[in-house]
């Protein structure tokens, strides 16, 4: 191996370590409330600055349509921030822009720095380690440990039982993280014992989150795996993986039965199922809940209501339909700043439309379609780990009907990691990639 190749490998390792630290900084955002220095010294922004300087000098840009769409998406977000500055002020513009793209910037970095399947797998392991920490915080609260110093005084109830916030965020985030963790455990954990433990952690998070959407998506992911296994079985592709799918699904069922055998676990499962079908009087069933959300989200913002100043809005004109109404119009940054008429949709697609119009929504939809197509081909026709990101991507796409997953740190990390991995042609371990000269 030449000195140049050794130098490339050495610097690449440093960049990959920085990329792992970035994933940790994104996912462990709750720690900024415990360690003010984390936020004061902008550690996440420092890592971003280092990595973008490195990729600008060292890594060739991939000639992939998805990468171009991601670049266009981020550029359009910057233009929306300039528009926000023009119609409001710099504070709203900076707050809206940074919150909107603070996880999305991960995608181009993954596309440029990662070039091997093992590197994608290591990033997935880093994300899964954070989810394990989140599950530990839920378990500690079940044992009546006081974690207010870490998680704050968060309390919400369903069916008379407490829904626990975790290191991952509020209960719905923990539930969806459990679903994704389950999927990744099947595809990325080879040791059978560790895989079953991970499946148990996933089931634990879904059950004790009491999230209706998480329970639906968990069952839905099981059906998706059955379809994938059927395809591989009848096409005689990767029959070992087919066996692992069915073993994992059986393991999940056993874990549900095991948790149900405990009084507290049985209570949570009962409440979760009753809430799912609307038997819980405190909240509507999953289907009615989704219908109500969709009706409110698509019609509520444009209805005048004297008791709700944020709803006193005129129907958008053609320019607003095409280019949106800025970060001051919708999103958590605008509502946190108390901007008049700001609206917080519980639907990511609607928020994209309100912020950036049909143009931003169309670009984002194209990104999802291209990324899903590329990863789906790897899942069905190739024996690659990155193909397993197809199912988590699909789960997040569905969940965006009721949650802002573009910038919610835990789920958005998987979303943008998957899109970044879809941009690059992942090479075997023995392949040496030469970077730009002169660095």
Short description:
68% of the residues lie in helices and 1% in strands. It has helices spanning 3-27, 36-40, 43-58, 65-87, 90-101, 106-113, 117-142, 148-151, 171-188, 192-209, 212-234, 239-260, 263-276, 286-299, 318-323, 332-336, 348-381, 390-399, 409-423; strands at 156-158, 161-163.
Write structural notes for this entry.
There is one protein chain. The model is unreliable at 1-8, 298-315 and 430-439 (pLDDT under 50). Helix 1 packs antiparallel against helix 3 (43-58), helix 1 (3-27) runs antiparallel to helix 6 and helix 10 (192-209) crosses helix 12. 68% of the residues lie in helices and 1% in strands. Strands 1-2 form a two-stranded antiparallel ribbon. With 439 residues, the chain is mainly alpha-helical. It is built from 19 helices and two strands. The protein is globular.
Describe this protein with a few key phrases:
mainly alpha; disordered N terminus; 439 residues; 2 strands; disordered C terminus; two-stranded antiparallel ribbon
């Amino acid at each position: 191996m030449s000195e140049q190749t050794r130098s490339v490998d050495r610097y690449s390792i440093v960049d990959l370590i920085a990329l792992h630290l970035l994933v940790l900084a994104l996912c462990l955002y709750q720690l900024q409330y415990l360690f003010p220095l984390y936020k004061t010294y902008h550690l996440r922004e420092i890592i971003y600055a280092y990595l973008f300087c490195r990729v600008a000098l060292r890594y060739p840009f991939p000639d992939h349509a998805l990468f171009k769409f991601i670049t266009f998406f981020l550029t359009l977000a910057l233009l929306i921030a300039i528009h926000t500055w023009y119609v409001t002020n710099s504070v709203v513009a900076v707050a809206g822009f940074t919150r909107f793209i603070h996880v999305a910037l991960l995608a181009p970095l993954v596309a440029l720095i990662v070039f091997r399947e093992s590197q994608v797998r290591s990033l997935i392991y880093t994300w899964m380690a954070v989810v394990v920490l989140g599950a530990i915080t839920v378990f500690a609260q079940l044992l009546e440990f006081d974690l207010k110093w870490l998680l704050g005084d968060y309390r919400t109830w369903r069916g008379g039982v407490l829904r626990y916030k975790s290191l991952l965020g509020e209960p719905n985030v923990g539930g969806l993280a459990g679903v994704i963790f389950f999927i990744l455990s099947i595809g990325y954990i080879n040791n059978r014992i560790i895989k079953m433990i991970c499946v148990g952690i996933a089931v634990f998070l879904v059950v004790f989150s009491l999230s209706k959407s998480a329970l639906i998506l968990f069952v839905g992911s099981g059906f998706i795996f059955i379809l994938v296994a059927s395809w591989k079985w009848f096409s005689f592709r990767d029959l070992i993986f087919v066996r692992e799918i069915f073993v994992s699904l059986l393991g999940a069922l056993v874990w549900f039965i095991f948790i149900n055998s405990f009084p507290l676990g049985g209570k949570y499962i009962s409440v979760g199922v009753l809430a799912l079908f609307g038997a819980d009087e405190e909240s509507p069933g999953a289907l009615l809940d989704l219908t109500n959300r969709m009706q409110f989200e698509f019609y509520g913002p444009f209805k005048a209501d004297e008791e709700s100043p944020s709803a006193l809005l005129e129907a958008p004109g053609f320019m607003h339909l095409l280019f949106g109404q800025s970060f001051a119009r919708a999103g958590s940054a605008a509502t946190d700043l108390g901007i008049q008429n700001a609206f917080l949709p519980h639907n990511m697609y609607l928020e994209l439309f309100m912020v950036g119009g049909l143009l931003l929504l169309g670009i984002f939809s194209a990104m999802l379609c291209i990324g899903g197509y590329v990863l789906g081909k790897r899942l069905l026709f190739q024996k690659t780990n990155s193909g397993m990101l197809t199912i988590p991507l699909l789960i997040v796409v569905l969940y965006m009907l009721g949650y802002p997953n573009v910038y919610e740190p835990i789920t958005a990390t998987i979303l943008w990691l998957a899109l970044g991995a879809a941009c690059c042609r992942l090479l075997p371990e023995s392949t040496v990639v030469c970077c730009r000269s002169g660095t």
